[in-house]
Amino acid sequence: MARGEPKSLESLLPRVLARLAGESGRAHTLAPVWATVVGPHIARHTRPRSLEGGILVVIVTSSEWARTLEREAPSLREQLNERLGPNTVKEIAFHWELR
Asked: Is the Cβ–Cβ distance between 88 and 22 less than 8 Å?
């Protein structure tokens, strides 16, 4: 896309959300992007908590979810970076917490 061409809100929003999350350290703004990447079933059992230094911390509802998603982390990271911008998420850490 040429520099002068307008971009759609849909294409800009994930990057704006990533910037907000990175600046605040809080990743709750990434929840819509996270849900798009993982789908509604997984989104019900997870929530992004923080994004600092390229590390996205995601809260999961059980240790089983943490183990399952750790195996999927490289693919999830790639899909998130496609939406949020290159190298926005360098690592994903899954932490178990009761809701």
From this structure: yes
